[in-house]
Write a structure and sequence with these properties.
binds uridine-diphosphate-N-acetylglucosamine; single chain
Length: 435
């Protein structure tokens, strides 16, 4: 298993380009299932999760061609299988997104039930309830969601919780349903808007994406088209925090600043100088950061996917602050690792009280989920000494070449291939797991 080694203490300098958004690229690739014409998608980030999505689509019978710039042409004219197997769903929960499109186009789908994960139970009841309202018959057998339908029909669907993939799944399904569907209390995330833009380019009739009420008038068929995935706002936010905590000054390029307003506001409150242009953000860290209170909530509020990075920021800021996680249960695994590096954090239910310390100390640490691992990498960039970060496959699921991008801004970071470490430094190879 690969690991990362960081040497702390270098303020980040320079600029970094942001890749396409993972959370938009996955559903946009899956939109290809809704048509027999080819869909070309560009700005796809090079990540484990995008590879897994391609593997899943290929298993369903979609033909995929990738060019040298990582644009993907997906041709679903010969889909011959409607089963998303456990082996793929267990590594990527977003596989549930094939349920709506397969059902809408082929009248059948079987998707392994996603289990619990490191950040909570994450049910999919809203996906199921919404499809049932559109006329699907759904049962759960042998760990699989089995869905059957004639042509789906439009429905008025109220989402009890604001679910991103739930909204996307139902929106995709409704494009081919007979009549009009309305999704109330829909997720407003920019990735939902990107999926709607792609579907509209394919001939769908979707209005209101980006608001909490989305109206979809079903059409008989969708065509192919071309779509460019939006930039990854969480990757951008992660690099901005990296600059802030390391005392650096960087420019983040190819980003949509208005999509990270909540994060930029908190960085300013922490004392950083933040400037924005059409597609860039420049940040200059203050001499000493100030603690900021955080409360995660659905977009446009502060994103849960930036919570771990701000726990780290508060760990080395002046004063004390609370970080309240309202979206996911059990999304504080990074706190135990940060404590091992000297952070002063108390956990009470869904609230972390963080008291800033002068500095963090290097320690072997272990990544537990995607965003928790980003926070540990950033911690390693500012800790005294060398930090060994284990289980970084989590980070490879969601960050395109993170160590290259950080190294290009001066960070002391390198990847150690697992087999090398086991051969040359056997004692350290197992250090993370032991910690
Ligand atoms: C998506 C993002 C993830 C982000 C999250 C919240 C993708 C691929 N992933 O995850 O990075 O952290 O949004 O912004 O886009 N819920 C239910 N029933 C359901 C569905 C969800 O109760 O059927 C609950 C969840 O348990 C959670 C909340 O709703 O508490 C939000 O989850 P949701 O928005 O669905 O997360 P994902 O779409 O899985």
């Amino acid at each position: 298993m690969d690991k990362l080694i960081t040497t702390g203490g270098v303020p980040l300098q320079g600029e970094v380009r942001i890749s396409g958004a993972k959370n938009a690229a996955l559903p946009v690739m899956i939109c290809s299932l809704l048509t027999e014409e080819p869909l070309t998608i560009s700005n796809i980030p090079h990540l484990h999760d995008t590879t897994t999505t391609m593997e899943l689509l290929a298993q369903l019978g979609v033909k995929l061609q990738v060019d040298e710039k990582l644009a993907v042409e997906a041709d679903a004219s010969e889909v011959n299988n409607v089963v998303a197997p456990y082996e793929l769903v267990k590594t990527m929960r977003a596989s549930i997104l094939v349920l709506g499109p397969l059902l809408a186009r082929f009248g059948r789908a079987e998707v392994s039930m996603p289990g619990g994960c490191a950040i909570g139970s994450r049910p999919v009841n809203l996906h199921i309830k919404g499809l049932e309202a559109m006329g699907a018959k759904i049962s759960i057998r042998g760990g699989y969601i089995r869905a059957r339908a004639g042509r789906l029909h439009g429905a008025r669907i109220f989402m009890d919780m604001n679910s991103v993939t739930g909204t996307e799944n139902l929106m995709m399904a409704a494009t081919l349903a007979e009549g009009e569907s309305v999704i109330e209390n829909a997720a407003r995330e920019p990735e939902v808007v990107d999926v709607a833009d792609c579907l509209n380019a394919m001939g769908a009739d979707i209005r209101g994406a980006g608001s909490d009420e989305i109206t979809i008038r079903g059409v008989k068929r969708l065509g192919g088209g071309a779509h460019r995935v939006i930039p990854d706002r969480i990757e951008a936010g992660t690099f901005l925090v990296a600059a802030a905590v390391s005392g650096g000054e960087i420019t983040v390029k190819d980003v949509r600043p208005q999509q990270i307003d909540a994060v930029l506001e908190k960085l300013r409150e922490a004392g950083a100088a933040v400037e924005t242009g059409g597609d860039w953000v420049r940040i200059k860290a203050p001499k000493k950061l100030k603690s900021v209170n955080i409360r995660t909530a659905p977009y446009p509020a502060f994103p849960t996917d930036m919570q771990a990075q701000f726990v780290l920021l508060n760990s080395v800021a002046d004063g004390a602050a609370s970080v309240v996680e309202t979206v996911f249960e059990n999304r504080f695994m990074h706190i135990h690792e940060l404590r091992r590096m000297g952070a002063n954090i108390e956990l009470d239910g869904n609230t972390a009280v963080v008291r800033g310390v002068e500095r963090l100390r290097a320690a072997p640490v272990m990544a537990t989920d995607l965003r928790a691992s980003a926070c540990l990498v950033l911690a390693g960039l500012i800790a005294d000494g060398e930090t060994l970060i284990d289980r970084i496959y989590h980070i490879d699921r969601g960050y395109h070449c993170i160590e290259e991008k950080l190294a290009q801004m001066g960070a002391g970071i390198r990847r150690i291939p697992g087999n090398y470490l086991e051969r040359v430094m056997p004692a350290r190879a197992g250090a993370g797991a032991a910690g």
